[in-house]
Amino acid sequence: MKQLLTLFVCFPMLLFAQIEPVPQDTLADKYIRVEGDSLFKKAIDLDEVIVLPRLSLKTKDERVRYYILKRKTLKVYPYAKMAAERLVELNKELEKFSKRRKKKKHAKKVQKFIEKEFSAELKKLTKTEGQILVKLIHRQTGKTAFQLVKELRNGWRAFWYNNTASLFDIKLKREFAPLDVEEDFLIEDILLRAFQNGQLERQDPAFDIDYYDLTDKWLNPKKSKK
To answer: What is the pLDDT of residues 190-210, one digit of tens each?
Structure first.
């Protein structure tokens, strides 16, 4: 799993406010005033809630497969989330440097710190967990693991890492494609359920994913063909 270590170089909190009653003898009696906000509103914006359908796992093999995938996904998602956060932080830091040499020096310094901090944990991942992590890194950053290594190190090293990873059935160029790959759809389903029940901290993906399009494709195949 050493080739994954380099990737780690690479909502605001909701404020819960009390709703105060508005005097009934004013024109604002149909509005809501939120404490700390000087404006009256007709409605309060809420986060979108996706209604998740019940999965039909008909056979024992399907159930076992899903729960194994669930266990592995919940295990590696925090690393993908952290990779996205580190990438944002690194890019902000690099903007402070005008010279390429200083940028490269700073990136290398961050890389060594990240490798030292997380290498032991990443080395414990299995081959399948490593591949799921690669796909989730793409989900959270919008870039493949190969692209991140290439940008943060160099093209030859990215090529070498990809070939080395392929020996262990880990493809760094693999993208997260839930509309095309059933396993990726199941991973997306696992994540959304974990976000809703509080098992994982939600972090939006780097690109739009329409869960209802996915369910039409994988759970309602007859409907999607019409």
So the answer is: 999 999 999 999 999 999 999
